[in-house]
Amino acid sequence: MSKIYGFGNALIDIEIQVNEDQLTSIGISKGGMQHITRDEKDFLLKEYKNSIKSMHPGGSIANSLIAAENYDASTCFSCSLGDDEYGQLFLNSYKDKNKIFFNYSDDPTGVCLVFTSPDGERTMASNLSANYQLSSNCISSSLLESCEYLLFDNFSLATDSGNQTVDYCLDNISNKVKVCFGLADSGLIAKNLNKIKNLSNTNLYCLSGNQMEHDELDIHLSLNYQNRLVSYDKFGATINGEKVKAPDITLVNTNGAGDALLGAYIALESKLGKLEALREAVNYASKICSSNTPRLT
Fold first, then answer.
1. Helices then strands (H, E): number in the chain?
2. Within a 10 A sphere around the Cβ of 94, how many other Cβ atoms?
3. Are 32 and 124 in contact (CB under 8 A)?
4. Cα gap 29→43, rounded to integer Å
5. With b meaning 16 or more CB within 10 Å and e meaning fewer, what string describes 111-122?
C-alpha cells in the first residue's frame, strides 16, 4: 500500500456552463487558470448564478489523493480552510477525518469557478482566500516523516506561505521519499520560474503535467527527475515516452482529469509497474472526463 502525503489548495469547484462568447467576455484564456479577487469572484457568481451546474470539493492535490485512495493508497492531505459553509463542505468530503490536517483561517474557504464550454474544456478562475494561510503549521510531522511519496504542485509555489510549506516539507523528509511535482498550469510556469528553479536541487521522482505545461517548462528550464508523466487529453498519456491511448468516451468535463491521472498512477506504479499503472490511470482519468465531478467516490 502506497503512503502518500500531499498538501495544497483546498477549493470548492463551482462549475458554470458558458458558451464561447461568454467565455471570451470573461477574459481568461480558454483552458487556462487565473487568480481573481474576492470582489471579482462575487461579481462572476452573481453574473452567472443561473448557469451554475454543480458544486464539488476540489483542489488539484486533494483530487489526486482521492484518486489514489480509490486504488487503496494510504493518503494524508494538508490545507487551510475558512470556518464557513464551504469549509464544512470540503471537510465532509472526507469520510476519515484523520486523513486531513488543516488550520482555520480568518478568510473564507477558497473557491474555483470552473467555466465549462460546449466542447467540455474547462477554464478556471480561482479565489484562493484561506489558502494563502497554508503553512508548516498545517503539516503533520509524524505522517510526513513516514510517507513514501510527497505530492505538491505549482499552485503552492504561487504564494509565499505555500513556498514556505514546500521548503519545510522538503527539509523534513528522508532521501528515500519519492517527491512528485505537478506543473498544474502552463500560465503559472513563467510566473513561478524562479521558485521552480529552487526545485533544481531536488531529485524529483515524478514530474507531471499536460503536453502544453511540459513544453512551456522546457522552454525555460530543465529539472532533474526520474519519471516524466505527460497527459495528451483525449489521446492518452505517456510515462518516460511510452504511450497509452485513452478509450473513446462521451466527453462531459475535463476538470480534474490530470489530477486523477497522477493520483492513480502513483498509487499503482509500485504494484503494477509503470506502463500498466499508466494504462489503469488513463482509464480512471477518462471516467472523470465522462462525469461531472473532479472526483469519483
1. 11, 14
2. 16
3. yes
4. 19
5. bbbbbbbeebbb
CA separation for the pair 193, 216 (Å, rounded):
11
Q: Which CATH architecture has domain 60-106+132-289?
A: 3-Layer(aba) Sandwich (3.40)
- pLDDT tens for each residue of 256-265: 889 999 999 9
| Span 26-83, pLDDT tens digits | 999 898 888 899 999 999 999 999 999 989 999 999 999 999 999 999 999 999 999 9
Quick one: cell of 34?
487565473
Interacting residues of 73 by C-beta distance below 8 A, sequence separation 6+: 1, 2, 3, 4, 65, 263, 266, 267
C-alpha closest to that of 99 among 134, 133, 65: 65
Please report, for the chain, the start and end positions of each structural domain, with discontinuous segments joined by +: 60-106+132-289
